[in-house]
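If you are new to this repository, start here. Below is one unmodified record pulled from the training split, so you can see the exact layout before writing a loader.
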Amino acid sequence: MKKNSICDNCAHYTYDEEAEEYFCMVNLDEDEMARFMSHFRFECPYFRLDDEYRLVRKQM
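And here is the target side for that same chain:
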């Protein structure tokens, strides 16, 4: 069963067409990765909402 995660909404979570998978583009250190893999509710300090309309709102 896949863990629920907010990675799907993160700007750093991108799709790699060659691998046909999503990857986190942030390089987590060993401790951060261990916390992420072992805890259900790990809060990533690098999370940034992927707000694709942010630039449009700024222009209005």
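Two things worth knowing about this chain: Residues 30-38 form the longest helix (9 residues). The beta strands are 13-16, 21-24.
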